[in-house]
Amino acid sequence: MRILDLSAYAGLAAVGLAAVNLGLGTCIAARYSPLQNWPRRRFNIFYWHDRSGWALLGLCILHPALLLWVRQPRFGWRQLLFPPHSPGQPLYNTIGALALYLLALVFLTSRIRRRLGRRLWKAFHYAAYAAMAGLFLHGILANPEAKNAPANLLDGGKLWVEACLLAAIGILIWGLRRRWLRKRVRQNQSALPVAINIP
Which residue in 102, 21, 94 sits closest to 54, CA to CA? Predict the structure, then answer.
């Protein structure tokens, strides 16, 4: 197995983990209770969202770092950190790098969220959506051979990325719908007349 293949597999694993992490984060935002709903047992969503996030960040760093050992095309630290100068696909590599930088920002600010305060931390945390969009876009458009050639969108790896993207979109729609329904229920409850006990 080539190092280029290992890099591609790390990227594919990162995309799958991104969909999982996004799903867990959406469950938290939508106040989903695994005890009251499926699977009707205790499941610490916060813990697994945090752990999957760190694993995702690790895979996103490993994916380009492995390219340092690829002989053709030749990548150096400068090309990895500043991809507009990369030997192949500079635009797609720049999208991937920006996604990684945003992801790092989200996780670093999550470590100091108490110092930042909830409002500022939440503003930083919204960058995760842009990071995920960049991650999926890079995964779909980038050529796995790191060449300046269009990628085959029906390749097995690309189909995996596309399936994860569809799952992520479905999760986001579910989360938004659930939050909207919860808001409507709260509004309806607040509109109910207050019963007055008259002796």
Answer: 21
The rounded distance, in Å, linking the Cα atoms of 158 and 152 is 7
Looking at the structure of the chain, the number of domains it has is 1
Q: How far apart are CA 107 and CA 127, in angstroms?
A: 10
149: left (phi over 0), alpha (psi -120 to 50) or beta: beta
DSSP state of 147: S
CB-based contacts of 162, cutoff 8 Å, min separation 6: 140, 153
Q: Is residue 53 part of a domain?
A: yes
Q: What is the CA radius of gyration of the chain?
A: 21
**One-letter amino acid of 35:** L
Torsion of the alpha carbons at 136, 140, 142 and 144, rounded to the nearest 10: 110
pTM, whole model, 2 decimals?
0.88
Query: Which residue, chain included where needed, has tokens 């492995």?
Result: 66
Structural domain that includes position 143: 3-187
- Read off the tokens for 110: 């999550």
How far is Cα 159 from Cα 155, in angstroms, rounded to an integer?
A: 6
The one-letter amino acid at 121: W
In a domain, 193, yes or no: no
159: in domain: yes
CA distance 22 to 148: 31
pLDDT in tens, 146-177: 888 888 999 999 999 999 999 999 999 999 99
Residue 24's CB is within 10 A of a number of other CB atoms, namely 22
Q: How far apart are CA 13 and CA 20, in angstroms?
A: 11
